[in-house]
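task queued by scheduler; priority normal; single chain, no ligands, no partner chains; default sampling; output format set to C-alpha cells
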Amino acid sequence: MGLCDGKGEFASGGPQFDNPHLMSERSPSRTTLLPALGLALGGLALAGAAWMLPVNLLALPTALLREAGLGTPTVSDLGRDLLGREKLGPAALILKAAQAVADEGAPDLALAWEEEVARQPALVPWGGWDPFLEPLFNRTETQGRTASTPVLAVFVTREARAALAGFLSNSRSAGVRTLVELRQIDRTQQFVPATRPGGQALDATILMTALLYQGEHLSDSLQREVRRMAEAAVVADDLVGIEPFLLDLLSLGKRLDWIQLTEFSRLTDSAQTLREFAHLSRLAADDLAILYAAALAADSADEVAGYLIRYGRQGLDDLRFALGAGQGAVRQLLARQVPVSHETGPTIGAMAAFGLLHPKLLLAAKYFGMLLGAFLVFRGLDRVFAARTTAGALPHLSSGVLAILSAALIVAATEPFLLKAAAPSEFRFSSAMPVLADISDTTSAELTKPTSAMDFSTLLTIGFFAALQVAMYLICLLKIGEVNRRDVPALVKLKLMENEENLFDGGLYVGIGGTATALVFQVLGLIEPNLLAAYSSNLFGITCVALVKIRHVRPYKCKLILEGQEALVRAAAVEAKPEATSTA
C-alpha cells in the first residue's frame, strides 16, 4: 500500500485506485477499445460487402449479364434455328457473329451450314426460299452463283425488273398497286426518276419495296407507314416525302440478300429505325453481322439501333459481350439501355439472380450498406479517439455526417458512369452546315466536342482534398477531447478552446491552399483543366469548418460558460457564508 501524501492522493509505490481522475482515464479505454475496433472493422466489412453487390445505378455489371444469359439460346442456337427453317442467308450472318463472339457452338454451326448449302445450292444467292420469288427464280443471273448475293444486284437488272413489274401489276393489294405507281413519277430530288436513263436504282428499289409489301415481310407498323408515304407521294405527284425511305432501303439492299432483308424488315417497326440501321450498316460495315444477330436475338431492330446510336463503338463492344453471354443477356441490356460496367473487382455472384428480379431493391441495399458501413466505421473511430471523453463532446451526428459524405464519395467513385459520362457516340447522325468563315484561317475550322466526362486525375484530386478535410476534422475532434480531459476549471478550458481557434479554422486554410495548388497544377499541365477539382477544396474546407464550429465548438463552449458561471456562483456563496457568520 502506498502512503497518503496529505492531499487525498496516494504516494507512489502502490496502486492508485482511490484517484477518481485516473480511474476515469484508464478504465473506459480498456472497456471500450476492443468493441470500438470491432465496430469499425465490422463497418469496413459491411461496406466492402455492399460494394461487391453486382448492381450499378447507370450501368449493367457483367455478372448480371452472364446471369441473364444462363439457360437462354446462344448465337449458335439462333443460327441452327434459322437453318431448320431454310434461312441460309440469315444463318450465314449469325455464323459470322458466333465466330466474332467466340461462341463454343460456332464450329458445329459452320458444319451444319455447309451441309445445308451442299443440299440446296440454288437457294444460296437468295439466302433461302420465298414463294414470291418464283417469277425471278429461273429468269435472273443468280444461276450458278455459290455465294449470298445482295438483293439489289439481282433486282437492278432489266430482266428482273420486267419480271417483277409484270408480277406486281396483277396484285390485288391496294398498297402494292400504289407503290408500283411511284415508278411513273418524275419529280425527285435524290434519285434519277425511274422512267429516265439512269433510273434503274430507283426502279429496282420501288419494286423491291412493293415485293416486301406483297409478301407481308414488313412489320404491321412499318407497312402502314410505307403505304401512307406512297399514297401521299401519288397524290402530290412527288417522291420527295418517300425518297429518304427508299434511299435507306437501297443501302440495305446493297448489303443483304433477299431472305436477310425480309427477316430484318419483319423486326423493324418504323422508317426511322430503317434509317438508323442503314446509317449503322455504312459506319460499321465490318460489324454488320453483330448488328444483325443482336436484332434477331432481341426480336427488335428498334432497340438495337437506339442503343448503338446512343453509345457508339463502346455500345457495339457491350452488345458483342452480351451476344457471347446469350439471348437473355442481349434482351436485358437492350431493355435497360445502359452501358456495361466491365469492372474486374470481386463480386458476390450469388446475388446476381436477385439483382435481375429486383434491381432497384438490390441497389438500395448496396447504398444503404455503404452508408451503414461508413457510419459504423466512424462511430467506432469516435469511440476509439474519445474513449475518455464525456458523452457530449463527440455527438453521434458527427459520425452520421461523415458517413453520408464518405458514402457519397464511395458511390461516386464506384459508379462508372455517374460522374464520368459515356463517351460521345461515333454513330450519331451529323450534318455539315455551311457558314461564313475565313477558310484561310485553319484555326476557325477546328471543332471542339463538348463532353461531360470527368478525367480520372480530377476524381483523384477531389478525393484527395476530401480526405484532407476528413483528417482535419478528426484532428479538431481530438483537440476538443484533449481539452475536455484536462483536470482544470471550466473557465480555463474555455480559454484553452479560444486559444485553439486557429486550429479550428485550419480546414479553411487547407481548402484555400488546395485550391491554389490545384490551379497551379492545371496551369503547369500536370492535371486536366477543371475548375471543379480546384474549387472543391474550398467547398470541403468550408464544410469542415462549419461542421466543427457549429456542431462541436459552439455547444462545448456554451457548456463551459455555464459550468464556469456555476463555479463562480458557488465560490461567491462560499465567500459570503463566512462573512455572514462573522457579522452575526
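post-processing summary
- The mean pLDDT is 80.
- The radius of gyration is 38 Å.
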